[in-house]
Design goal:
It is a single chain. The two termini are 26 Å apart. This protein has helices spanning 22-28, 39-47, 52-65, 110-119, 122-127, 138-154, 159-172, 175-195, 213-220, 232-235, and strands at residues 99-100, 131-132. It is globular. The chain has a two-stranded antiparallel sheet with strand order 1-2. α1 packs parallel to α2, α6 crosses α7 and α6 crosses α8. It has two domains: 8-95 and 134-198 and 243-247, Orthogonal Bundle (DNA Binding (I), subunit A); 99-132, no CATH class. By secondary structure, the protein is mostly helical. It binds a DNA duplex through residues 9-10, 13-14, 79-80, 104, 133-140, 142-144, 147, 157-168, 170-171, 182, 185, 189, 200-202, 204-211, 213, 216-217, 219-220, 224-230, 234. Its main location: nucleus. Belongs to the TCF/LEF family. This is Transcription factor 7 isoform 8. It is found in: Nucleus.
DNA sequence: GGCCCTTTGAAGACT
DNA sequence: AGTCTTCAAAGGGCC
């Protein structure tokens, strides 16, 4: 029996921001405790395959909940949250945007893809399984939402520079503001788990050609990360605050 | 055409 | 268990 309060490493944000919610306990515990707020969603997700209606409910509820965000996340346009034929039983022919062709280019249009696949052999199709992308973390969701705003303000276009600004702004956010994004990210991970039960992050390992380790570390960090994937000065951040109660 | 840069966080790999 | 590495997004820069 796992003591209350012990959470899996993967579910605990670095700053301890959003703690395990009852919704998540449905996935991690064989005897889940009743979820207070969005109980209907978690139960649907647990007891049968995910369906479009479930997800639209999920989004509308989540959207409403997260409507308190200062900058509303585009739930229905977020790539890895949009639905498609990858959902069992879903009528649409548009694949889930988290699924990209092996080439890695997500913006490839469906008809382009169909033209290309026509000339591919059947064997090729089978070997070239589409890539399922990782779910976005809290900071990635924040970046995605705020990028356009920063570009407009700074008239910059280079993503490297934009991301530096966004990184600083992220740290300038209050705990409460960050918590909202952590919560969004947690929900996205849950949805991702529902959509792709057998998926693992290792599936995408080695699919990108990367520069050498030394160069990468030197250029990107200038130092080593600690056990939490952050850096010493960041690890000294203020103590975590209590989990969100709004759901 | 495709990797690099740059950020944080999640998670797998490694020691 | 602790540490390291990779990949998520984005788009200009560069080879």
């Amino acid at each position: 029996m796992q003591p209350v309060g012990i959470v899996h490493k993967a579910t605990q944000p670095p700053h301890g921001v959003p703690q395990l919610s009852p919704l998540y306990e449905h996935f991690s515990s064989p005897h889940p405790t009743p979820a207070p707020a969005p109980a209907d969603i978690s139960q649907k997700q647990v007891h049968r395959p995910l369906q479009t209606s479930d997800l639209s409910g999920f989004y509308s509820l989540t959207s409403g909940t997260m409507g308190q965000l200062p900058h509303t996340v585009s739930w229905f346009t977020h790539p890895s949250l949009m639905l498609g034929s990858s959902v069992p039983g879903h009528p649409a022919a548009i694949p889930h945007p988290a699924i990209v062709p092996p080439s890695g280019k997500q913006e490839l249009q469906p008809y382009d893809r169909s033209l290309k696949t026509q000339v591919e052999s059947k064997a090729e199709k089978e070997t070239k399984k589409p890539t399922i992308k990782k779910p976005l973390n809290a900071f990635m969701l924040y970046m995605k939402e705020m990028r356009a705003k920063v570009i407009a303000e700074c008239t910059l276009k280079e993503s490297a520079a934009i991301n530096q600004i966004l990184g600083r702004r992220w740290h300038a956010l209050s705990r409460e503001e960050q918590a909202k994004y952590y919560e969004l990210a947690r929900k996205e991970r849950q949805l991702h788990m529902q959509l792709y039960p057998g998926w693992s992050a290792r599936d995408n390992y080695g699919k990108k050609k990367r520069r050498s380790r030394e160069k990468h570390q030197e250029s990107t960090t200038g130092g080593k990360r600690n056990a939490f994937g952050t850096y010493p000065e960041k690890a000294a951040a203020p103590a975590p605050f209590l989990p969100m109660t709004v759901l």
